[in-house]
Amino acid sequence: MAGATVSTSSVTAVTDSKKSYLFPFILVTSLFFLWGLAYGLLDVLNKHFQEVLNITKTRSTLLQLAYFGAYFLMALPASIFMSKYGYKKGIILGLLLYATGAFLFYPSAHYANFDAFLLSLFVLASGLTCLETAANPYVTVLGSAETSEFRLNLSQCFNGVGSFLGPVIGGALFFSGDKEAAGNLSSVQSTYIVIGAVVLLIAFFFYRTSLPEIKEVSTEEGAGSIQTAKPLFAHSHFVWGVIAQFFYVAAQVGVGALFINYVTEYWQGATSEKGAYLLAVSLILFTAGRFVGTAIMRTVAPNKLLAAYALINVVLCMLVMAGKGAISVYALMAIFFFMSIMFPTIFALGVKDLGVHTKKGGAFIIMSIVGGAVVPYVMGVIADSQSTAGAYAVPLVCFAIVFYYGWKGYKRA
Fold it and tell me: What is this structure's pTM?
């Protein structure tokens, strides 16, 4: 999805220095892979359902609404549940919801009911919300404090692997050369039954594995600073951060939602299977972009890099809107690379110097991912009424807003 949940607090755990936490670390790292896989399959399902269920592009974007709407609605309940019952039970609950949603794909496919698929995806994504809320802090405590950043980055790599494999699996199974298989939903049934079974197995391992107790420790420092004298929404850089994050996530989800449609419509002779593989390559570019962007930030101010990347994407969106065959498809793929650093950079700039408001401010910025639920629908309407290329005017506007944030909006008044 937009990016892993960013924590605004530190965590401590009751650990045994003599005990190895390798197996628990492997288990928690598997969660990163699982939600990457779920997101990687999402955009492939859009095109597959259009073909098999004969639905419009507009209606297919309701998949993004169900997926990201679950994140928006369930983030707070998931946090409350874990505060009361602990992170381990939260992870198990998340895995059970994930598996339930995956298994619900079977009857949804049997009856070829798109509304049932939306419900199934909402349940699945509700489980992912629990997993993302718990996984990041757990990784930081499963070993020495000195190597916590390394462990978190290593786990994040597997999120990228899952995101890459999702379109590869979807392309191979949903758009295979077997026309009979590609024309029905049996491949969707079998894929999600396997995913559900694997998730249940991992849930069992979590149930039987001893994990350290974990609790959050607030890092909302600076209570005596002058910044904390102002109400949260009096911080203009925070307000603009919420706005920028809303439109960034909207752009990211929208760019991917109609990706395969764009490839098949503007690259002569391209199939949906080829579109799925190109989407997988694009997600590799997204992952690589994070590493490159992190390295560049050692010498370039984050706000300047954010503004530069956003401006580049505005230009790339113009080329995509031109619909110039393979060149425009390559431009669409390049957008993923330049989106890579936007989510964490906007978040970090938005919560900077909020003092005691840091945690609450971070929660509002995370909730702004609801942009990924509502704005792609607008792209679907434009794609159906005008053209798929024209629909990319929407992310163009979104990136322009992100550019403004990196240029001026980030400044603390």
Answer: 0.80
